[in-house]
Q: What sequence folds into this?
C-alpha cells in the first residue's frame, strides 16, 4: 500500500497575509525578546479571558498572527510543520503560566532564542512530570527594522499510534462517491470541536484517503493543502452541487458551511455567508476513478 508522507502545507487562505504591525502590542523597533514577550502575552491574555472561552484555535491564531511571517511552502516541506499554527496549538495545549527567554543570539537580520515554559494545572496535568519545564526554540528575522517570528521548534512528542488503513476503493466507485466519502470524513474528523490535535488528525485522514488520490506530487500537494485549510475552517456540513463527467475526466463541485471566523474573510462564490465552494477533479485509469485535485 502506498504510504503518503504527511506535510502540513501552509494554509491556503493565509498565503496572502503579510505581517501587520497593527496587530503587534509593542513599539516599532522592539528587540527579538520583546517581540516574543508580546506574542506570548497576547496569547496568554486571549486564552485566559473568559469572554474568549469559545474563541477556538482559529480566533486565537488570528489575534496573534501579526507577530509572524506566515510559514512558506518551502519551510513546511523542510520541517514537516506549519510553525506559526504549531506555536499557537502548543500554547493552547500547555497554557503556560510563565516563560523564560534566554538572551537571543543575533546574526544580522536573523535571531534565535531558546524559551523555557512552565505549564499550568489548567492544561490537564495529572502527574508530577507534567509540570516539568518545556524547552522550545523560536527563530526571528528583521524586516525594515522590525522583528518577526518565522519558526518554532517545540518539545519532542511521542509517535502517535498507527493511523487506520486506507479506505478501500474499487471499480464501483464514481467521482461522486469518492468526493462524498472524502467530504464525510473531513466533516467528521475536522468539523467543529473543542479538541484540536490538527496535525494528528491530518495524518489519520491522509492515510485513510491516500488510495482515493493519484500517486503524484501535485495531487498530494493539492490534498494536504486542502486538509490544512479544513483544519482552520472546521466545516460542519457539505453539499454536492454539480458533477460534470466527460469521457474519462470529471469535475465535481461542492459547497460546505463553516462557522469559523476565517470563513468570513474568504470571498464566497455562492453568495451565501459562511458557505464556501470546492472543485474536485477526477480521472479514470483502467476503469478506476481516482481524485486528482481539489481547489477553492
A:
Amino acid at each position: 500500500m502506498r504510504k503518503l508522507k504527511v506535510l502540513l502545507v501552509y494554509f491556503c487562505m493565509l498565503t496572502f497575509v503579510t505581517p501587520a504591525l497593527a496587530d503587534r502590542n509593542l513599539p516599532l523597533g522592539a528587540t527579538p525578546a520583546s517581540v516574543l514577550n508580546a506574542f506570548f502575552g497576547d496569547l496568554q491574555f486571549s486564552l485566559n479571558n473568559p469572554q474568549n472561552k469559545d474563541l477556538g484555535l482559529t480566533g486565537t491564531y488570528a489575534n496573534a498572527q501579526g507577530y509572524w511571517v506566515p510559514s512558506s511552502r518551502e519551510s513546511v516541506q523542510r520541517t514537516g510543520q506549519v510553525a506559526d499554527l504549531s506555536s499557537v496549538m502548543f500554547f493552547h495545549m500547555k497554557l503556560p503560566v510563565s516563560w523564560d527567554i534566554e538572551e537571543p543570539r543575533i546574526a544580522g537580520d536573523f535571531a534565535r532564542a531558546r524559551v523555557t515554559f512552565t505549564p499550568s494545572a489548567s492544561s490537564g496535568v495529572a502527574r508530577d512530570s507534567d509540570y516539568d519545564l518545556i524547552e522550545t526554540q523560536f527563530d526571528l528575522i528583521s524586516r525594515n527594522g522590525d522583528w518577526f517570528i518565522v519558526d518554532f521548534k517545540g518539545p519532542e512528542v511521542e509517535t502517535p499510534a498507527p493511523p487506520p488503513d486506507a479506505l478501500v476503493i474499487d471499480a464501483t466507485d464514481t467521482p461522486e462517491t469518492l468526493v462524498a466519502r472524502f467530504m464525510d470524513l473531513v466533516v467528521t474528523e475536522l468539523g467543529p470541536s473543542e479538541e484540536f490535535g490538527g496535525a494528528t488528525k491530518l495524518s489519520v485522514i491522509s492515510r485513510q484517503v491516500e488510495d482515493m488520490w493519484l500517486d503524484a506530487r501535485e495531487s498530494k500537494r493539492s490534498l494536504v493543502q486542502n486538509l490544512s485549510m479544513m483544519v482552520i475552517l472546521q466545516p460542519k456540513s457539505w453539499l454536492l452541487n454539480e458533477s460534470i463527467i466527460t469521457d474519462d475526466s470529471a469535475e465535481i463541485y461542492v459547497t460546505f458551511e463553516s462557522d469559523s471566523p476565517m470563513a468570513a474573510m474568504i470571498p464566497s462564490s455562492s453568495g451565501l455567508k459562511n458557505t464556501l465552494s470546492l472543485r474536485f477533479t477526477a480521472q479514470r485509469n483502467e476503469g478506476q476513478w481516482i481524485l486528482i485535485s481539489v481547489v477553492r
About this structure: The mean pLDDT is 79. The longest strand covers residues 275-285. Residues 230 and 274 are 13 Å apart (CA to CA). Helices lie at 32-48, 56-64, 73-79, 83-94, 175-190, 198-209, 217-233.
